């Protein structure tokens, strides 16, 4: 089993390394007086011995602190915990100093004899240091816990948002698939070459839908390329009844948005509105000053007998933008026109969860 030093906070041994040398020098000066600085051999050896002894005392106090930390984990017991810790530290400090002072006398270290005044001052000084370090390490430990909790909360929120995003995946519209197969069936009997091209574009559409089901963002260029294939299928069905105008600036084509965003908005438009050659559905997709893409269409509601939630796709897009911490999707609708503003994301990392 791997042995680990007791650790009350993340900075315990960093603090030990910072204070051990100056503390050892001060301690030895109180033990040996001026003689400590006059004999180089005595200086080096006593500094090493006292430094090791102080490190052992520090580790023992650390183990005691960890014990009380586990014994009093609740926030309301912080005061009680500190009182017990400091009390035990002062007891250990007394034992440590007695062993150190008496030890040097016992081995007749350079003729040393017990210095009672030096012992008292060392005990007072070390007691003050114990109180200070106890409060310092408690503060560091509380900060460590706060940072750990913050990180855990961020991970939990990220996991929750990711699970929500997975729940908002675009699904293949069964009506669209059925209508596409009907169109393909008609073309096979009428124009084999056109049917072959239709099948090729249809495979591109569904391949894109399946491939990008797990992607969080795609480039505008990628989305527009997919939209070309998607619109080819629609035009095969609706002909001149569907008119689409795309004018997206080149500078905006390298930006990002959630996959299938434009497809969902186009689908919403043609599923909610009547389409005919005499009253075509007109959809425009264009840039808005580099910060967004606008999708608008004329409104000519169709009368449907079945209850369908046509807005679920748009609702999903709005939720996605909220989950990836982006600007709101804005919808403006009048009796004759509907306009949807989709924010563009400049860098993929802006929306990574």
Describe the 3D structure.
The chain is α+β, with helices and mostly antiparallel strands and 353 residues long. It has two domains: 12-166, no CATH class; 170-351, 2-Layer Sandwich (Heat Shock Protein 90). It has ten helices and seven strands. Strand 4 (281-287) and strand 5 (292-298) form a beta hairpin. Helix 1 crosses helix 3 (40-71). It starts with 11 loop residues before the first helix and ends in a 10-residue tail after the last strand. The model has no long low-confidence stretch (mean pLDDT 82).
List keywords for this structure.
single chain; 353 residues; alpha+beta; Heat Shock Protein 90; 10 helices; 62% helix
How is this structure best summarized?
The protein is of the alpha+beta class and 353 residues long. It has helices spanning 12-32, 35-38, 40-71, 78-106, 116-167, 174-190, 192-211, 220-238, 261-272, 312-323, and strands at residues 218-219, 242-247, 256-257, 281-287, 292-298, 330-333, 337-343.
Q: List unreliable stretches of 5+ residues.
A: none
Kindly name the structural category: alpha+beta
What would you call the shape?
rod-shaped
Radius of gyration: 38 Å
CATH structural architecture of the largest domain: 2-Layer Sandwich
Write the topology of this structure.
Blueprint: H1 12-32, H2 35-38, H3 40-71, H4 78-106, H5 116-167, H6 174-190, H7 192-211, E1 218-219, H8 220-238, E2 242-247, E3 256-257, H9 261-272, E4 281-287, E5 292-298, H10 312-323, E6 330-333, E7 337-343
Parallel strand pairs: 2-4
Antiparallel strand pairs: 1-3, 4-5, 5-7, 6-7
Helix pairs in contact: 1-3, 1-5, 3-4, 4-5, 6-7, 7-8
């Amino acid at each position: 089993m791997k042995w680990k030093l007791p650790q009350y906070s993340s900075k315990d041994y960093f603090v030990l390394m910072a204070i051990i040398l100056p503390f050892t020098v001060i301690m030895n000066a109180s033990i040996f007086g001026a003689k400590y600085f006059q004999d180089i051999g005595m200086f080096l050896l006593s500094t090493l011995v006292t430094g090791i002894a102080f490190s052992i005392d520090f580790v023992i106090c650390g183990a005691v602190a960890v014990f009380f930390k586990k014994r009093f984990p609740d926030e309301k017991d912080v005061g009680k915990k500190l009182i017990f810790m400091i009390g035990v530290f002062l007891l250990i400090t007394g034992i440590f100093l007695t062993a150190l002072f008496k030890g040097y006398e016992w081995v007749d270290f350079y003729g040393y004899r017990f210095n009672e005044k030096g012992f008292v001052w060392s005990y007072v000084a070390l007691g003050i240091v114990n109180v200070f370090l106890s409060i310092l390490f408690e503060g560091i430990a509380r900060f460590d816990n706060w940072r750990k909790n913050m990180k855990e909360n961020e991970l939990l929120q990220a996991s929750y948002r990711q699970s929500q995003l997975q729940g908002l995946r675009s699904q293949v519209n069964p009506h669209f698939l059925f209508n596409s197969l009907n169109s393909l069936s008609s073309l096979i009997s009428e124009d084999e070459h056109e049917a072959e091209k239709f099948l090729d574009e249809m495979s591109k559409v569904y391949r894109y839908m399946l491939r990008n089901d797990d992607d969080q963002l795609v480039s505008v260029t990628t989305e527009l390329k997919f939209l070309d294939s998607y619109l080819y299928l629609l035009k095969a069905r609706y002909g001149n009844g569907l008119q689409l105008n795309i004018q997206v600036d080149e500078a905006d084509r390298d930006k990002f948005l959630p996959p299938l965003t434009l497809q969902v908005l186009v689908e919403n438009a043609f599923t909610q509105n009547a389409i005919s050659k005499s009253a075509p559905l007109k959809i425009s997709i264009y840039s808005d000053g580099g910060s967004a893409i606008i999708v608008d269409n004329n409104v000519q509601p169709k009368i449907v007998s079945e209850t369908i939630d046509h807005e679920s796709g748009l609702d999903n897009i709005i939720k996605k933008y909220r989950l990836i911490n982006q600007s709101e999707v804005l919808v403006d609708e009048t009796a004759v026109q509907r306009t949807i503003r989709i924010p563009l994301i400049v860098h993929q990392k802006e929306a990574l969860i």
